[in-house]
Sequence to fold (630 residues):
Amino acid sequence: MSRLAWEEIAAAREAIEGRAHETPIMTSSTIDGRCGGRVFFKCENLQRTGSFKFRGAMSTIVALTEEARSRGVYAHSSGNHAQALALAAKLHRVPAYLVMPEDSNRRKVEATKGYGAQVTLCRPTYEDRRATAERVGVETGAQLVHSHNDLRVIAGQGTAVCELLDETGDLDLVLAPVGGGGLLSGTVVAAKHLCPGVRVIGCEPAGADDAYRSLQAGELITDFTPETIADGLRTPLGENTFAILSELIDEIVVVPEEEILPAMRFVWERMKLVIEPSSAVAVAPLLTGQIDVTGLRIGVILTGGNVDLDELRLG
Amino acid sequence: MSRLAWEEIAAAREAIEGRAHETPIMTSSTIDGRCGGRVFFKCENLQRTGSFKFRGAMSTIVALTEEARSRGVYAHSSGNHAQALALAAKLHRVPAYLVMPEDSNRRKVEATKGYGAQVTLCRPTYEDRRATAERVGVETGAQLVHSHNDLRVIAGQGTAVCELLDETGDLDLVLAPVGGGGLLSGTVVAAKHLCPGVRVIGCEPAGADDAYRSLQAGELITDFTPETIADGLRTPLGENTFAILSELIDEIVVVPEEEILPAMRFVWERMKLVIEPSSAVAVAPLLTGQIDVTGLRIGVILTGGNVDLDELRLG
Fold:
């Protein structure tokens, strides 16, 4: 019995209906030709705030009691969860307190403030993020909405693959990136319920392969220094995501760092979609043949599109 | 009586059904908030070959006689029309001969060859393009499919706004970029038929404002040297597009060059869509307030997404 029941994902889906975008699904004959399968891309880069994180943030906010809403929510995040929680909270007039490391992307900090959240900067270590967040929680009396270990959030993230399967029908394989594991956990619970024969594979960057190593070791590894271009995937698994993935996931593949940007660029050029490096981690194995998908129908979740064009020296 | 009848656009729409993508329509609350209207973006950057040009190329190829198909088609083009005609021809096993200026984007030349077309390079002047194309036409006996002055092509380009209006219902205003005027001409004929009260405005870059000046002068101006970042809009109007626009278009606005790249970047960052500078010419006036759209429902055709990421110094 998994820690997350299908019914919680179904409830989250109802909660976000009309509040989150039902994002488009795209195909590319170029990519199909290259990998030999039929690939359906769920475009969460086109989700509100530019990533799937809005799903879990919104489903959690919607389900809060009146009393909890009045006290507000808090979290620590370097980017996508911060923006998502800030906007979801704003739309329901819930105060939001976000702790962000001081080396966060300036635009993400600005966007989070722009949604009306109160932002506290902290030192860029996971310990200081947690310590600062705890202090903010105590001071404000707000409720923690953890970016990837909160079961309500995980349930919300599981709604993306529901929409995907609704449109495509049965798939042989679903690929999603894994960082903290919230998206992958929600995805595997939902996908295996809706399409029992489907395989679900997590794609993890080589520079932060803690999920792969944790599942191999059979215990949660959190003590590591991530060195990956995929800035959305630097966080370790949480206890809940570790437990869910241990039980249900078919495989984690570790994607070499040098294959991430070429895959990102391929999607920009060929599909005309701006995706961030974290999204490309689930595309690269199709382009390089690391996962053999010949003759298969594959779903891929393009998780987000929040890149800093300045850092990419554009324009 | 316009040179192009609505019935020809309706026929083109039937011809491309199932052959061209019915591209998605996107909205952005950020852009709505900024311009004060409700904007619907028709995403032709997500069309096959990366631009709306595939519509006109495909509708023209489909309508060829067997005999014409066997002899093939030719055209001169620096990019998007070349790729579009090459793929449409390939899909119907029609030989395609493309004349491309030697300073064309390398990737566009490669893509055109990749679709099996025979490419002849020429000097980068409009005269040499035409002269070389004429020679290719004589040598091969193929049929000319002009990129923007061919009425069959113009009819095909008009199908994009049909799909847009089908989904949005009546609009107050439609914006499209103008270069050779094929898209704008097809758009104005289709839009005024389907939605008689709609205003249609062409958006032209300041560095190639021949359409604006031609309509002002009441005669076709073709003798000018374009100097615009919007590389898809450097060609002059043709006789047919000049006649159609003279009769039907409500207005041409001239967009300052320095506003084009910021608008492009805005769409990349906020909408996560890769568009080329030519597309951004129809977005900029919404962001700068050059066109007042307060309280209006506006359709914008995002014409293409074929940018060279190398030139933009990305990654």
